[in-house]
Amino acid sequence: MSGTPSTASAPTGFRVSLPSLRLGWLRRFGVAVLTLATLVLVWEAGVRIFAVPRFILPAPSAVWTETIAVGPALFVDLRATLTTVVGGYIVAILVAFPIAVAISSSRAASSAIYPLLLVKQSIPVVALAPILTVVMGTGESARITITALIAIFPLVVGMATGLSAAPRELLELSASMKASWFKRLVDIRLPCAVPHIFGALKVAIGLALIGAVVAEFVAAERGLGYLIYSSTAYFRLPVAFGAMLVLSCMGMLLFQAVVLAERIFFPWAVGREEDPA
């Protein structure tokens, strides 16, 4: 008899929480869609009422019509930008991780590397991009390098912070049990660093998108950044606005992909902000 209440209460809690989570998600999604639709309607009405010229501020209807008229070429530009973003993002992660490990493991390495990172971060990528283009050419490698450079700083800082956040008691205990440096890194430091790492990954994916667009402004024949640059040069502002909207959608999808990866592979590291209680 004592086991009956607990058995019955577990499904009840599940039945209550799951609809609550779905309702909360639908409420947030509905508010976002309603806000966006209101802004679009106000934009369209304002342009029509005040007769704003198209080359200054196009109406959303004009943006939609002329962007669709670009046709398959838009998907070619989309693929080119996505390739640069993903390539630069992966390169930034591969470079940032060993640097973060070195910084979190040695004070000497931290003192030597951090000033160089700050010098790199203080140089605007817009100023650095033309120099890299001259040195590396106008190929994909230059654009990926520019993208990686702008995304690497938050990755190093976030990863190093997370790797340094491991409880010292656990590290000392594992050292007393003759655990190797690599085993302490894998079993203690990395699990503690997961929330910080994914926080840095979320920031870096947006910066990678910015870096890709800047690189396409400087040296590219394809890409959404190049489409924006060439469209504004010929006063085709509706197409430029359309490319910017596509870029924003790409950024949101890439960000959500990082969030989804965290929820799938490290669900224990995700906060409980969606708890219905």
Structure description:
83% of the residues lie in helices and 0% in strands. The protein is mostly helical and 277 residues long. It has 2 domains: 1-51; 56-269, Orthogonal Bundle (MetI-like fold), CATH 1.10.3720. The longest helix is centred in the N-terminal third of the chain and has 47 residues, at 3-49. The protein is globular, with a radius of gyration of 24 Å. The two termini are 29 Å apart. Mean pLDDT is 85; it is low at 1-16 and 272-277.
Which percent band covers the strand fraction?
Answer: under 5%
The CATH superfamily label of the largest domain reads MetI-like
The CATH architecture of the largest domain would be: Orthogonal Bundle
Q: How much is the average pLDDT? A: 85
Class by alpha and beta content: mainly alpha
CATH class of the largest domain: Mainly Alpha
- How big is the Rg? 24 Å
Q: What's the helical proportion of residues? A: over 70%
Give a count of the beta strands, DSSP E runs of length 2 or more.
Answer: 0
Regions with little confidence, pLDDT below 50 for 5+ residues: 1-16, 272-277
Largest sheet, strands/sense/barrel: none
General form: globular
Give the number of helices. Answer: 10
Q: What series of H and E elements makes up the topology?
A: HHHHHHHHHH
Counted up, domains total 2
The CATH topology label of the largest domain is: MetI-like fold
Transmembrane segments: 25-43, 82-104, 116-138, 144-167, 188-214, 234-255
Domain ABC transmembrane type-1: 78-256
Main location: membrane
Protein name: ABC transporter permease
